[in-house]
Write a structure and sequence with these properties.
globular; mainly alpha; 17 helices
């Protein structure tokens, strides 16, 4: 059977050999590597749709893994194509890093063992360090340094937690873990939670995200806020629903408190941001909080709602950050500059604001159905007051979302020939934005209450 994971792994090895051959033959054109990378990602996406999941002892299939890995590969294809449409002389290192990061995200979804989970998370993290810093400047150096430092601390904490779990349970397999009344084991569970919360940007372990998101190339930010974060949240599902027997009211309430704190704190800070990208970064943190609310229920209804919501916000986050890349290149940095967006690209502006509306949870976008699925799951378990509180926060968050909409001037017209942008590159980017925008509406077919 042909598996997407094998295609990505074999593709990386093949790209390294081809790139070495290119250097040996003194061929300076790197486009062959870039096009092969895109072909590998597309082939993996097709293979995932047709053949489904990998099934070997170190990794295991779950009923949702094909769906999650499918949309991860879909986003990877679109994000990478968007990056390559810049027509800049990017190093071929970016190709290897991008495929490895995507492969790591997919292996997180399939992990059946703490060893495989840690390896997969590190595969994402190490590749992401390079992606953040692939265009060298002081701002990105600062962002990459913060990311590496805090990520290193989080993975050390997680590995220490895993060692305590092993000391208490005597196994690292998700399927063999049982309840252990042993204080170091309980402490290990908490430390694993800290490590995964860092990757998922759950408050108070989110501190790295705004700075790193803002410092990175917006295409890389799209990857971090969608694919990487989706992998972190699904890792929480793998660990706290399928591995640890922690379905207790106390643990569930603790998770809900963290989730609500994440939503409220991020939404509040988003309202005081003047820089558009930083506002979007805090918005992305808030979206992770909504997904974590559903995970906190620790039951099948909550997990189904969480998986669907992860899908909805990942696509919307990718859409808004990719669309913003076009505006950022034209020095649209602050909210007061939003008036110029429409004159730069009508399609990108429409896609950007449809993505914003989806993040805000307004119908008929997929974000509305994602939040509705979470509310249905909460109401099914009697969390009426929590639903009311979350609805109030959603209304509060619409103020900073609609602040961007209000400032946009749809009457201003600018000659695109005078912009610092290649028209053919802009058309490719606009086509990719249209694809992601349509995905927000087509994704409604996956709604399952």
């Amino acid at each position: 059977m042909i598996n997407a994971e094998y295609i990505l792994f074999g593709g990386v090895l093949a790209l390294i050999l081809i790139d070495l051959l290119r250097l040996r033959l003194k061929i300076n054109n790197k486009n062959i590597i870039h096009f092969l990378t895109l072909a590998i990602l597309i082939a993996a996406f097709i293979a995932e749709i047709i053949f489904g999941n990998m099934n070997v002892s170190f990794f295991s299939s779950t009923q949702y893994s094909q769906f999650v890995n499918g949309f991860i590969l879909f986003l990877a294809v679109v994000i990478y194509a968007f990056l390559m449409s810049d027509s800049k002389d990017y190093s071929t290192t970016i190709d290897f890093l991008f495929i490895l990061a995507t492969l790591g995200a997919m292996l997180v979804i399939l992990s059946s063992n703490f060893i495989s989970l840690v390896i997969a998370i590190e595969m994402i993290s190490i590749s992401s360090y390079g992606l953040v810093f692939f265009q060298k400047n002081n701002r990105r150096m600062e962002g990459a340094t913060k990311y590496v430092s805090l990520s290193f601390i989080s993975i050390v904490i997680m590995i220490f937690g895993v060692s305590l779990v092993y000391g208490g349970a005597g196994t690292l397999s998700f399927t063999q873990l049982t309840s252990v009344d042993y204080i170091p084991f309980i402490a290990g569970v908490g430390l694993v939670m800290v490590g995964l919360a860092f990757k998922s940007t759950i408050v108070p372990f989110h501190m790295w995200a705004p700075d790193v998101y803002e410092a990175s190339n917006s295409v890389v930010t799209a990857f971090l806020s969608s694919i990487s974060k989706a992998a972190g949240l699904v890792a929480m599902i793998r660990v706290f629903f399928f591995a640890f027997p922690v379905s207790s009211p106390f643990v569930s309430m603790m998770f809900i408190i963290l989730a609500v704190s994440t939503i409220f704190f991020a939404s509040f800070l988003a309202t005081v941001q003047e820089r558009i990208k930083r506002l979007l970064a805090y918005s992305s943190i808030a979206q992770a909080g909504f997904a974590f609310v559903a995970i906190a229920l620790l039951n099948y209804i909550g997990i189904q709602a969480a998986i669907f919501y992860i899908f909805t916000f990942a696509i919307a986050d990718a859409l808004v950050f990719l669309a913003y890349k076009i505006f950022e290149d034209q020095k649209i940095i602050y909210k007061k500059d939003a008036a110029k967006m429409f004159s730069i690209s009508k399609i990108a502006t429409v896609g950007f604001f449809i993505g914003i509306l989806s993040l805000a949870g307004l119908p008929p976008t997929i974000g509305f159905f994602g939040k509705l699925a979470i509310f249905v799951a909460l109401l099914a378990h009697g969390y009426v007051y929590l639903v009311v509180a979350l609805f109030a926060i959603i209304l509060f968050s619409t103020f900073y979302y609609f602040g961007l909409l209000r400032d946009t001037d749809v009457t201003e017209v600018r000659d695109t020939q005078k912009l610092n942008i290649k028209i053919s590159s802009l058309r490719v980017k606009e086509a990719l934005i249209i694809i992601l925008t349509l995905a927000l509406f087509v994704g409604v077919i996956f709604v399952n209450f």
